[in-house]
Write a structure and sequence with these properties.
By secondary structure, this protein is an alpha/beta fold. It contains 11 helices and 14 strands. It folds into 2 domains: 219 residues, Vaccinia Virus protein VP39 (Rossmann fold, 3-Layer(aba) Sandwich); 116 residues, no CATH class. Its EC number is 2.1.1.37.
Length: 381
């Protein structure tokens, strides 16, 4: 099987497809740091630039598009599916007729199911059905693939000739129970006033970073670490591993092209390779979908899993965010917390200040550890 990739980023979808023998022959990506990574990692693939200038794509079995989430994400501009960034998804539908893929795979943030009453999903569905496609989507948590990274994304699969339900709804697993007492917890040190992103034995969703290229990785509370080492942050290589890539995957992005912050943006935008590997396995070998709980619904509200055709939508409640349950890598096994950078005194102080003004409830031991960390870091300056 062959594939083409629009908005290819650093190839997260394509890495997973390749693990199932699906070869990507053409990739489209505009941002230079991402193009540097693709040129290095997929040197046998055709690499095209701005999608708006692409006139046609080769005939392929699979067309992928992890289109920009900037206008759809809670952390973004929330301008919607027709915003200046996310609106480029329209080029997917422009290029579909000539590529004529058996399968179309789209990926984006979970927030698009609720933003503006779910207008983004309504737009995608309308465009697909107007071209004779059947479609299905499912929210998938990256932790189900074994990485300690709580990251939920919408995976949408569509086809004119095949049944997308056989790809997305053939697998179901029980969510892994987190231990009541863990050695490590991830949280957003940039928040603390109205939210925290708390994750047990995992990090919350890796973010792109600031618009000026300053990385903002989550922090990790290592409960049993020595003073000064209890609050640390993952390195960019750790972040690559948390997304399922080999460490150093994005190193080519900094070769004369920009600061380290560009690598955080690339990794924060990427698709977890374990998720795409699961999708690829079912594209190659579709299964029998479990539709025992399906029910016809009003499209005014989009559930976590659904499929549709010809204006009708069915929810699939039994298809949760864990389609599989790979062997789990604990956070302290992925990140060497003894070597990870300590959160700075300034960053810790800002976080402490926000927690003191917040109405949120925090683990008392966690607050003690954070305040002690601030004191230790100031003392070492």
């Amino acid at each position: 099987m062959t594939a083409a990739a629009l908005f290819a980023g650093i190839g997260g979808l394509e890495v997973g497809l390749a693990k199932n023998g699906i070869r990507t022959i053409s990739m489209v990506e505009k941002w230079e740091p991402a193009r540097a990574v693709l040129a290095h990692r997929f040197d046998s693939s055709e690499l095209l630039s701005d999608v708006s200038t692409v006139k046609s794509l080769p005939r392929v079995d699979v067309l992928t598009a992890g289109f920009p989430c900037t206008d759809l994400s809670q952390a973004g501009r929330t301008q919607g599916i027709h915003g200046s960034a996310s609106g480029v998804v329209s080029h997917v539908f422009r290029l579909l007729p000539e590529a004529r893929p058996t399968w179309l795979v789209l990926e984006n943030v979970q927030n698009m199911l609720v933003l503006d009453g779910g207008s983004a999903m309504a737009f995608l569905v309308a465009e697909l059905e107007a071209r004779g496609y059947r479609w299905a989507y499912r929210v998938v948590d990256s932790r189900s693939t074994g990485v300690p990274h709580r990251r939920k994304r919408v995976i949408l699969v569509a086809s004119r000739t095949e049944d997308p339900r056989s790809v997305l709804f053939a697998d179901n697993a029980m969510e892994r129970e987190t231990a009541s007492i863990s050695t490590a917890y991830g949280f957003y040190w940039t928040e603390g006033f109205t939210g925290l992103g708390w994750a047990t034995d995992a990090v919350p969703t890796l973010k792109v970073g600031s618009t000026v290229g300053i990385p903002s990785p989550p922090a990790i509370w290592v409960r049993d670490a020595v003073r000064g080492r209890q609050i640390v942050t993952p390195t960019i290589e750790d972040a690559e591993a948390l997304q399922g890539f080999r460490r150093g995957w994005t190193k080519a992005a900094t070769t004369g092209l920009g600061r380290e912050g560009s690598r955080w943006r690339l990794v924060g935008n990427a698709v977890t390779t374990g998720v795409s590997a699961w999708v690829g396995s079912r594209l190659v070998d579709p299964g029998t979908p479990d539709l025992s709980s399906q029910r016809l619904i009003d499209t005014g509200r989009w559930p976590h899993a659904a499929y549709g055709n010809k204006g009708q939508v069915w929810s699939v409640p039994t298809s949760g965010a864990w389609p599989l349950r790979r062997r789990y890598k604990h956070l302290v096994d992925v990140i060497d917390t003894s070597m990870a950078p300590s959160l700075s005194a300034r960053a810790t102080a800002g976080f402490v200040s926000r927690t003191e003004r917040s109405t949120l409830r925090f683990d008392p031991d966690f607050l003690v550890a954070v305040k002690e960390h601030e004191h230790v870091m100031r003392s070492s300056q």
